[in-house]
Amino acid sequence: MSFAALLAAAAWASLPGTYINTEGMQFVLIRPGHMQEAVFHPSCPSSADPAVTPKPGITVDPRILWTPQDLALCHKLVEQESSDGFPVRITRPFYIGKYEVTQAEWKTLMGSNPSVFQASKVTDDAGRHPVESVTWEDAQAFVKELNRRERTHLYRLPTEFEWEYAGRAGGPGQVGWNDIRKQAVQGLRTTDNGRKPTTKMVGTKEPNAWGLYDMLGNVWEWVEDFYNEKTFPDPVPPSHGGQHVLKGAGFVSDVKNAIYATHGAGPGDRWDVGFR
Known about the structure:
paralog of FGE (formylglycine-generating enzyme), 5-stranded antiparallel sheet, 11 strands, 16% strand
């Protein structure tokens, strides 16, 4: 969750880097800046790749061998699909949640808890796990109630570009795989002790460079925007649609989705969907 700091530069320059509201929710100040969005430069195997040219004496399953026709198609797709993206400028500062909204925070404001992973399903403090099984409309209801309690109108979901800009933390591109392992909350289909995977308490992994936790993994996070039914967002988000954008991937998502550029969608209320 975020709220805008709609102030002139001279005023917001003196704003605190972090903020705690009357409900105890913590926020981090994100200053204006820019990034390149929707950059996509796929590649094809080289002729030296074993899947293209097997080494002498080594047998390779023919089902994974790249034929000349495969390579030709790959290069054609690379030529068609490669994109330098487009620049995005964040012109106003905003605060964004330091953590995903927790079950305890949801229950305090809404008086209920829709989450699957409550006390009987986890071995630690379920209240500190992210709330999940919430729709975009549910998230908006929480925002409305928080605005009522705080006597303001500034709280809202972040836009997709705000979310991704905050996640990248000023970086020029996507997070490296080593950082994904440090930051992303991920699980396996079954754990070593036979227990099924669950969400994790917020803040248990390393934060990104701007102090935000769990931007990757744990739960997919709703943002404000409608989904454009494309692989990447458009420079101007659609004004209507049947679904809204989800960012950041969930704890059982494929690792390839645990990147800031992932542009997912859903109408749903799955047990790996929450928000901040």
